[in-house]
Write a structure and sequence with these properties.
This protein has about 70 residues and is mainly alpha-helical. The protein has helices at about 20-25, 30-45, 50-55; strands at about 65, 70. It has a two-stranded antiparallel sheet with strand order 1-2.
Length: about 70
């Protein structure tokens, strides 16, 4: 076990620019499952939620805020 090496290292992760996130958001998808994955990814970009947190959300997690009663996580 002493020789075990975990790959990954110190790679620099370059964040997406807003216009790049928008391009992903606007990308037409022919497969419903891909649309769901894309939408979850976009949600992650704007909320910072982890993948498992996004998929664990339910209607009970949505609250209404403001004068208009807008839905919010």
């Amino acid at each position: 076990m002493a020789k075990f090496k975990c790959s990954g290292g110190d790679k620099e992760v370059v964040p997406l620019e807003l216009h790049e996130v928008y391009q992903i958001y606007e990308k037409p998808m022919d497969v419903v499952r891909l649309e769901e994955v894309r939408d979850a990814f976009i949600g992650q970009c704007f909320t910072g939620f982890a993948f498992q947190d996004i998929y664990a959300l339910s209607p009970d997690n949505i609250v209404k805020v403001g004068k208009e009663g807008e839905p919010c996580l």
